[in-house]
Amino acid sequence: MTPAPVLPYTLRPALPRDVRSIRGLVEPYAARRILIAKEAVAYYETVQEFVVADAGSREAPDLVGCGALHIMWEDLAEIRTLAVDDGRLGTGIGHEIVSRLVERARDLGLRRVFCLTFEVDFFHRHGFRVIEGTPVDPTVYAELLRSHDDGIAEFLDLARVKPNTLGNTRMLLDL
Questions:
Q1: Where is the signal peptide (predicted)?
Q2: CB 102 within 8 A of CB 173
Q3: How far is 40 from 32, CA to CA, in rounded Å?
Q4: How confident is the model at residue 2, as a pLDDT?
Q5: Taking the chain (175 residues) in consecutive chunks of 10 residues, what is each chunk's mean pLDDT?
Q6: Which of 138, 139, 156 is nearest to 147 (CA)?
Q7: What is the pLDDT of residue 164?
């Protein structure tokens, strides 16, 4: 079977009008428990964190990938909600999105980027390494405990989010 040709796409910051499409990209992964399903409001609240791969036009966007960079602390962010359309897997879109998010982290002066993933080899190719525990000092840990964000709770490896993280690997990139 010959793979479908890869259509050109552009990477750009997500817009509020993209939220429905972002959710559409995430839904198959959430159904397989690879990503966490979120309410629409959560995507609207964080749309500025997203980069999207758009194979359409300005008038008719066609999102084929997305990913977000969530700031966790003054020197730390998380890559989250990385999804590529199933028909475009293996075409490099995910790598381009991660590269753009890491570039954004550098531009923001961050020193570390975290991810919680099943795709260890994929992130390893971007320089991420497997970690154990939570790589912050006790003072920062105590501050992060105050967050209501489930991603922060996953980073802290809190018991209340264990069902979401089973089988995932904790990885860190030092910039």
A1: none
A2: yes
A3: 19
A4: 47
A5: 62 97 96 89 96 91 96 93 94 96 97 93 96 74 68 64 64 95
A6: 156
A7: 53
Provide the total of helices (H) and of strands (E) in the chain, helices listed first. 7, 7
Cβ contacts of residue 164 below 8 Å, gap of 6+?
36, 150, 154
CATH architecture of 10-174: 3-Layer(aba) Sandwich (3.40)
**What are the residue boundaries of the structural domains of the chain, listed by start?**
10-174
Residues in the chain: 175
Token pair recorded at residue 79: 């890559």
- Which amino acid is present at 1? M
Which residue shows structure tokens 């590529």? 84
Q: What is the pLDDT of residue 170?
A: 87
Q: Between the CA of residue 130 and those of 85, 134, 158, 169, 174, what are the distances in Å?
A: 26, 12, 18, 7, 12
